[in-house]
Amino acid sequence: MLLVALTGGIASGKSTVARRLQEHGAVIVDADQVARQVVEPGEPALARIAEEFGSGVIAADGSLDRAALGAIVFSDPEGRQRLNAITHPAVLERSRAQFAAAGAADPDAIVVYDIPLLVEAGRVEEFDLTVVVHAATETRVRRMVELRGMTREEALHRINSQATDADRFAIADVVIDADGSLKQTREQTDALWENLRARVRGSA
Predict the structure, then answer these.
(1) Mean of the per-residue pLDDT values of the chain
(2) Predicted local distance difference test score (pLDDT) of residue 204
(3) Structure pTM?
(4) What is the DSSP letter of 64?
(5) Is 54 helix (H, G, I), strand (E, B) or coil?
(6) Contact of 15 with 4, CB cutoff 8 Å
(7) Phi (first) and psi of residue 152, to 5 degrees
(8) pLDDT of residue 77
(9) Which of 41, 42, 96, 187 has the fewest CB atoms within 10 Å of its CB?
(10) CA 6: distance to chain centroid?
(11) Distance in angstroms (rounded) separating the CA atoms of residues 48 and 43
(12) What pLDDT score was predicted for residue 25?
């Protein structure tokens, strides 16, 4: 099994790369999806969040009130760290279980962990290869304004709340430049897939 980390800032084009790799046959484990699963009603992480931040972050139906929690932690770095201390270990445990299941089902599987906050999580050493998807700040701002309805200020705030480009480049084994056309991004992703397949064949 080959375990690949795929990361990139918000609106960088990472999801486009992940979809293309999945089309080729990669097993995608989505960290954001796992993060949603571990805070569902009945999950230990949700109970710990309620203990840490108060019952006001739990909606009437028992689910996490993301807006209420976001209002607390988004502009409070210390609060965000406390939240991460709860959610990151839970996400890590469940993600590793999914990696193991994929490897058990197919020893030659290429498993891609789609993880936006890889730098922040500090888990680079776990992966055989780290792929960073990059686009210029202005490109990302334009995408968020046009496709997600954000203001320019909101978009910049989201970008600035994440790791810097330099931080991501520092951990990259491969960089995909998603600043250009969709066709160009897909071509780079196709080349990456051939490289990954060659690695699997080489280790067989």
Answers:
(1) 94
(2) 59
(3) 0.88
(4) B
(5) coil
(6) no
(7) -60, -40
(8) 85
(9) 42
(10) 7
(11) 9
(12) 97
Q: What is the DSSP letter of 112?
A: E
DSSP annotation string for 149-190? ---HHHHHHHHHTS--HHHHHHH-SEEEE-SS-HHHHHHHHH
Q: Is the CA virtual torsion 122, 127, 128, 134 positive or negative?
A: negative
- For the record, the structure tokens of 182 come out as 């969709």
53's CB contacts (< 8 A; 6+ apart) are 69, 72, 73, 79, 82, 83
**What does each C-alpha distance from 199 to 4, 30, 42, 75, 97 come to in angstroms?**
11, 22, 41, 43, 23
**Tokens (6 digits) for 87:** 């959610």
Please report, as a single letter, which amino acid is at residue 164.
T
Residue 9 Cα distances to 49, 93, 162, angstroms: 26, 23, 7
Residue 136: name the closest of 123, 150, 155, 114 by CA: 155
What strands, in cross-sheet order, belong to the sheet with 2-7?
27-30, 110-114, 2-7, 129-134, 174-177
Closest CA to 99 of 89, 109, 90: 109
What is the block-wise mean pLDDT of the chain (204 residues), using blocks of 10 residues? 96 96 97 95 96 95 94 86 91 94 96 92 90 96 94 92 93 96 97 96 76
- Helix (H) or strand (E) run with residue 114 in it: strand 110-114
Residues in the chain, overall count = 204
